[in-house]
Structures are given as structure tokens and as C-alpha cells.
Amino acid sequence: MKAIQENCGVFALCSRYQCAGEIFQGIDFLQHRGQQYCGISTYDGTIHHETHRGKAVNTFTEEELERLKGRWGIGHVSLQDRQPLRWLTQIGEISVAVSGNVINSHELLREMMIRGKSFLEGTDVEIISKIIIEAPDIVSGISNLARKVRGAYSLVVLSKDGIYAARDIFGFRPLILGHDEEGTRFAASSESRALQNLDMQVYRDVNPGEVVLINDEGFRTVAQLESPRRAHCAFEWAYTASMDSIIEGVYVQEARDNLGESLAQRDIDEGGITADIVAPVPMSGIGHALGYHKRSKINYQEVFLYNRYADRSYTQATQSDRDKMAKRKLSILPYVKGKRIVLCDDSIVRGTQIRYKVMDLKNAGAKEVHVRVACPPLMYPCEFGISTRSYGELLARSFMRNGNIVNMDQLRSLEAWVADRVGADSVKFNTIEDFVASLMTERCNLCLTCFDGVSPYPPNFPG
Ligand code: SF4
After folding, report:
1. Shortest-distance Cα residue to atom 3 of ligand 1
2. pLDDT score of 143
3. Residue whose CA is at the smallest distance from ligand 1 atom 8
4. Mutate to test the pocket of ligand 1, among 448, 452, 455 (most ligand atoms within 8 A of CB)
């Protein structure tokens, strides 16, 4: 997949033991959320701090982890910037890590600079940190974000009190709490897989607008801001999150399975499809292809061999770099010769990647390639900075210039046009209704803006 532009993950741990090693492992388990930068801060009366360009496993040394003393700490992985950021403030020494995007950053920067504030680079984490630091205490500072920031964020703040973990009032980005059975470790993570793989059990998701203090006693809600509604990013289940994670009580694997089954059911309902194999576009199409296989009974077979030593395409800085990396990371299995293939992917943004894959399969001798897409057509940019930023990047939008798909005839026309553009024998998307049903979450609790254009923000929301 190719849409996600700016992504990241946070991990926080309060432990009875030195924590740096486990924070390192925590961010390693979140590395799929961003591979350009990583960082760790720990606290033992003062904050120790280290950030790197690159993946945690390639950049952190044992000596550095040894120097990161303390039982409490936070970590970050990012596509965009170095975090955490450490600050010396009137409320004490703190370190801040944010997973998210500030949409009204220009307005906030201008307003704060007029008031005499200065910034190193004006990144989102700097803006968020300065809003927190301006307040008399950390909880008030985090609460002030809800009034000022337009965007999507989950964050962790390391301080002398422990670690504050918070989510924006809509809960766009995931943040989940977990602990071990003995009560010796309490953690917060962008995804549950980091908890599970460190032998901790999931406790619960942080609520939208909730601020939780994590310390040696466990979890304590220190603020619960009013939330106008929930708006969990639907893309997390379809693409961003790892398949072994659970978000808002829904297994990512089960959601992807449902999305694939739903595509297969549509094919069955519309007269069936004759194919030899169903195959995923690795890695994010795997769950969808397994679901399609389960419902259709068509054999599941990999057709691309994933080069695990190539970086995930969306973590490259430019589109050209992403395209090159995408090409490098998959090789075709010669087995495809003469086969009729159902090829499952998570979404189509520009259509460039899927066109290359269809072309590669046909060049390798595939007889037919039918593309099945888990997400509905992407019609709108993501105003929360998570996915595409402009209409011009959206293939489906260039066909449906005047707005939403309102019936199946329109959807079929779009699918035929996309099939022609990407060189496939057919293309089908999930409808928004089938997509929502597959996520097993009430539509009113999801953000679906990039599919239906409906913003979860109430009128007159800040920014
Ligand atoms: S617009 Fe799309 S990518 Fe952005 S938060 Fe909403 S569902 Fe997620």
C-alpha cells in the first residue's frame, strides 16, 4: 500500500526493573508504524535520552541502552521526525512523544510566536509540547490541547510523577494499556502487539479525551475530557495496524478476514468467479486474501515472495523512492504462469502499485488477474494527516469528479474504469456498508472521511 504519509507509534513502560531494554523491544514491535526515526527517554530522577535515524534494531547499541537508566520510560518510532523531545520546564523535566498530526499547525505556530514563543523546527511534537508546558501542570496542559489542536494524536509524557498517556477527544489514533500478571509492569502502546509480545495482558484502550497517569501503582484516570463522539481511524484495521493487534476490542485479523469474506460473498452473489488461486499483495493484503479464500473456497497461494530485507514502501520519503522500494521488495513466483488469480489488496490510492503488480503477474504468464480491494474507493483526502493529502492523488476521485458513489451501478462503472487503468481483468471494492460491517464497529464510532467525505468534527471546532 502507498497512501500513508505520516505515521508513528508510541510505547511507555513503568516497571519495577530497569526499563530501557523492554522499551527498545516495545518500539521494535511497533516499527511497522514508521521506520525513519526512533527514540527512547528514561527517568531516574533525571531524564536520559537517545534518538536515531533508522530502525531501533539497527541503531540502538547495548551501551546506549545501558546508559538509559531508570524504571520508567517512553519510546517512539516515526516516519517523520525524531522523538521523544526532552524539555526543562517550570513544571519539571519532561519528555514528550506523540503519534499524530496537528492540522492547524501554521495557525498555532503564528499565534504562539506572536506571544514570544520560539521553536526549533516547528514540528507537531514541538507545538504539542509547548502547549503542555505553558500550563501550570501536565494534566491541564494536555487538556488545553483539546481546545487548541485540530488533528489526530495519542501521546505519552514522561515526568517525575510517572507517565501520562492521553488520546485526542475523538480517539482517532489507537492507544492501549496493558500490564503483567504480577503487577510489576504497567504499559501504554500504540498497538497491543507490543504488550502481548512482552508478556503483558491487554487491560483496556485509553478512552477518547482520557488522560491516564501510569506509575508503580498502575493506571489512574486523572482527567476525562468531554468527547463529542468517537472517530476511530478505520484504516487502522484495514491497513496500518499489525494483524496480531486488537483495537477497541476488535481483532485486526478478524476484521481483515471479514473484509476478504465480504469481497468473496459479493463475487458469489454476482454470479461467481472462476479462478485458480487467491493471493495477497504482501503484507497488508494477506488477511483479506485469507478471508476471500475462506468464503470462496478458492485455493490460497502466495504469488509474490516478500524480500524481508527491503523497507516497507510507505516509509520512503518520496513517491519515486517508494515506487522503487516497492518494486525491490517483491519478486514473482514463476508458479503463476497460466493461472487465473484473484489478487487482494487493502486499498487503491493512485493505482500505481497495483498496476505494476498486475503487469508483473501478466508478464510472468498469469492468464487473468482479478483485483479485490478491502477498502471502499478513496474519494477524499484525509484531513487528519494520516492518509492522502490531496484530491489529485486519488485515482477513484478522478473518475467520480462530482462526489460520492450513491448506488451499485456507479460503483460498477468506477470498478470497470479502474480495471482498465490498472490493466486487471476485473476490479471490485467493498461498499462502505460492507466495510463498516466487517469492522464490527458502529459506523458512528468510526472516521470514514476518506471514503464518504463526512467530517467527524462538529461545526466551529477549533482551528
Ligand atoms: S480520513 Fe481516513 S485515513 Fe484519515 S483518519 Fe479518517 S479514516 Fe483514517
Report:
1. 387
2. 97
3. 233
4. 448
Closest C-alpha to ligand 1, atom 6 = 447
Q: Would you state the pLDDT for residue 449? A: 94
- Per-residue confidence (pLDDT) for residue 459, from 0 to 100: 80
Residues 129-145 have pLDDT tens digits of 999 999 999 999 999 99
C-alpha 386 to ligand 1 mean position (Å): 6
387 lines ligand 1 (CB under 6 A): yes
- Residues near 110 by beta carbon (within 8 Å), at least 6 away in sequence: none
| Catalytic positions | 8
Using a pLDDT cut of 70, give the percent of the chain over it.
93
Question: How far is Cα 7 from Cα 216, in angstroms, rounded to an integer?
Answer: 30
Ligand 1 pocket, residue 172 CB under 6 Å? yes
Q: For the chain, what percent of residues have pLDDT higher than 90? A: 84
Mutating to test ligand 1, I would choose from 170, 172, 447 the residue with most ligand atoms within 8 A of its C-beta, which is 447
**CB contact set of 4 (below 8 Å; sequence gap of 6+):** 79, 235, 239, 240, 314, 386, 387
Torsion (CA) 266, 271, 276, 281 in degrees, nearest 10: -20
For residue 264, report the distance from its CA to the centre of ligand 1, in Å.
25
- Work out the number of other CB atoms within 10 angstroms of the CB of residue 431: 17
162: left (phi over 0), alpha (psi -120 to 50) or beta: left
- pLDDT category, 400, cuts 50, 70, 90? confident
Q: Is 233 in the pocket of ligand 1 (CB under 6 A)?
A: yes
Rounded (5°) CA angle 219-224-226 = 160
| Predicted local confidence at residue 5, as pLDDT | 46
Residue showing cell 507490543:
194
Whether 325 shows a pLDDT value over 90: the answer reads no
Cα separation values, 336 from 282, 341, 444, Å? 16, 8, 42
Protein residue with its CA nearest to atom 5 in ligand 1: 233
Whether the CB of 384 sits within 6 Å of ligand 1:
yes
- State pLDDT tens for residues 17-44: 999 999 999 999 999 999 899 999 999 9
Q: Which domains does the chain have, with CATH numbers?
A: 8-227 (3.60.20.10), 252-452 (3.40.50.2020)
The one-letter amino acid at 182? E
How far apart are alpha carbons 268 and 346 in whole angstroms? 20
Arithmetic mean of pLDDT, 378-405? 84
Q: Is the pLDDT of residue 407 over 90?
A: yes
